[in-house]
């Protein structure tokens, strides 16, 4: 039960690092910037989870493999970007795979540390979305997770499968596989078919009724 | 003395979550993005404080109520945004209320954990401004606190009241009330009357005197 | 061996706080915003390092001197910005000095806490680049470190000198001096001569060959 999250963690690290490196290549960062972004995209979710559950130093700091895997993915992307960026943006697929693997491994680690089911599910989701959020914040963009098609929902579903299977004492590897497949499938289908969660119905034109304020609300909170 | 900060924390969580959700609605995030932003705006300040004082797992991770209150505020905002956004931007008022409640509860928790008066005051301020900073960073904006009318000063004043009252052994609930009222009042008055702290007098035109460099300084640090 | 990192830390705090304050002045923040940015730029790297190695509360929270030095630098910059911003942007020099001092002191503290050589080097680099990243993220910009001339490489080199000297049991103060000088020199030379790390060769025009997709890849990952 402890080997599985480790392997999933490293696999997720690799694909998230690819996603971070691809975003860095797009933004014309230099090779070291790309490696920093690879590491940040790959490890921020796990590091945040570990700090929050009190597992310091975090695995990604204490264990060479996370660093090595992140750098490897960054270098591969740096030297062969064209092979990857051609045609359909592969960032989305790598991102979906990383999301799935991290949501599952994050939930498993939280369970190992004795968190209750709801919080283990949420920490799984956080592990999944944290890296992508860090990647986007570092590139001064609104994180994908806040806009994208079923992003966090997919992570939540994958993590929930793992936690529910644990409660029902079902075999952990199978649950991880099913959870990761569900998360990955949901996310990829959402991208392909443009599934989106609803957006709040702020009718900006509604200000026409008499007596209401015709100006739009101020753009900025400060 | 331990119940009071808890109640203040939950109230602050609710209003900051409203503030985060409103900002999310404005930026056309989907329902899950809005819930993530609600949670981040409401809990980042407290989580950061707890990690810094070594109280892990942080209250917001360990205790359902913070999550529940955040999601509730996010869903209310999602379903009834028009009622709130009409006329005068309410984000500012919610934000001021959250600032006041968090500055006070943050200072109280830091005192409970035995921090010295100055650092308890600063952690109160950090608790107050952390959530709003996270909300703005996630939306790729310069945080309100760095620009806005008496934002951090108000939080500092509210936290200082609590800490000073604690040093003078005055009753804690009254101090919390006075501190929160002072912070809220300062911030709302500053918004209403446009009170601002001074800005540094960088005279860009000053480069006219002979021998000086006519070009403006480079925009970017790198 | 414990006094040296402390003094280096305070010196690095001062220069990074200057760098944060200068960036705040450029973005027309008010005096409190400038002080917040001074503190964030000066202490985020060290606070992150301390949280990751389990040294909570972090030095910058527990010890008045960091706060005092940060505020002092912020106030100096606020009251005398013109003297500093004239001609060549001094942010870069302050930034390079802070980078050098923090990379060295960060590596030393990590060694004191018993981390292995590779991770101590990386934490030294993180201490060096963390503050500047926080400064830039708070200003909604892509961090300098991800683009700039030999930024993180310089920090890495400085930290590595300290760690290697420690392994060889060479005198610590001399190693710190050499490491800081190497880091500072590399960074300043890189700025002066425009040394840059290579950027990945994404040939956007390459999509001309038959059968390939003429559209550029989608800009956004979500």
UniProtKB/TrEMBL annotation, chains A, B, C:
Topology of this chain in the membrane: Multi-pass membrane protein
Keywords: Cell membrane, Membrane, Transmembrane, Transmembrane helix
InterPro entries reported in the protein's UniProt record: Gly_transporter (IPR005115)
Record flagged with keyword Transmembrane: yes
Presence of keyword Glycoprotein: no
Superkingdom, taxonomy of origin: Bacteria
Pfam families with a match to the protein in the record: Gly_transporter
Domain spans labelled Glycine transporter: 6-80, 93-165
Main location: membrane
Subcellular location: Cell membrane
Membrane spanning stretches: 6-25, 32-52, 64-84, 91-112, 118-138, 150-168, 174-195
Family: Belongs to the UPF0126 family.
Protein name: Trimeric intracellular cation channel family protein
Organism, scientific name: Dongia soli
